[in-house]
Amino acid sequence: MNYYAHAFPFLDSDAGDDAFPYFLAGLAAPDWLTVVDRQCRVRLKHAEPLTGDADRVVAAVARGAAQHIRDDARFHGTRPFAETTLELSRRVRGVLGHDASFRPGFLGHLLLELLLDAHLIAGDLQRLEAYYRLLDAVDPARVESAINRMAVRPAERLAWFIGRFREARILWDYLDDAKLLWRLNQVMGRVNLAQLPDEFAGILPDARRLVDDRAGELLEGLPA
Questions:
Q1: In terms of CB atoms within 10 Å, which end of the chain has fewer, N or C?
Q2: Is the dihedral of CA 190, 125, 89, 105 positive or negative?
Q3: Per-residue pLDDT reduced to its tens digit, 53-64
Q4: DSSP string covering 57-94, please?
Q5: Residue among 102, 92, 82, 75 nearest 188 (CA)
Q6: Over the stretch 115-151, which tens digit does the pLDDT of each residue have?
Q7: How far from 160 is each of 87, 143, 163, 203, CA to CA, in Å?
């Protein structure tokens, strides 16, 4: 699951709770860390003890991080996830061949998660606007401090990256094939894989339809 799919089930749950934006930041934090420092991870066994912390911000971030980890474990273990990833990987190979420098399996997984976000975003654009408004309310330094109490090593650039994430509004780009290809290539660059050619965008419309068709199955069992 990607940023928005993690947050989507909870966006109507704030009820005026001023710590709620920090729960959303906690939901995003494990994915933020893959960009900031791939060796810096949050483990469930380290997050769960802090969910009742006396500091409400720390507790909210910890609840979000723990929820993220549990939801990913469930999502990645489902048959719809495995089948859809396999089919997307097959389509990737149809365009790119078997060149290992592109890692079709990785791309199939990545495409599924970004296109599932796109599916949810397209259904209600105002909810994405609300998501960003809530994230805009957090103090990045407090999020970084909370995460560093549960991460395996300090994430020294997390606060900086939260600011960049909020400014870039990258989730809007998932709705447009050309912008999505650009975002995919950003990820490819971060993991030292070859850049995708322009013709890769040709598979995106059908890939969107596939994920749209299976979205109900993919999201089944997640928090409602």
A1: C
A2: positive
A3: 999 999 999 999
A4: HHHHHHHHHHHHHHHHHHHHTSHHHHHHHHHHHHHHHH
A5: 102
A6: 999 999 999 999 999 999 999 999 999 999 999 999 9
A7: 37, 11, 5, 34
Residue among 6, 209, 218 nearest 122 (CA): 209
Any idea which residue has 């796109």 for tokens? 118
Which residues 6+ apart lie within 8 Å of 101 measured at CB? 193, 194
* Cβ-contact 71, 222 below 8 angstroms: yes
CB burial string 48-77: b at 16+ within 10 A, e below: bebbebeeebbbbbbbbbbbbbebbeebee
Q: Output DSSP code: residue 222.
A: S
Max Cα–Cα distance, the chain, nearest Å? 54
Given a contact cutoff of 8 angstroms between Cβ atoms, the answer to whether 207 and 181 are in contact is no
Kindly report whether the global pTM for this prediction surpasses the value 0.85.
yes
Q: Which tokens hold the place of 138?
A: 């957090």
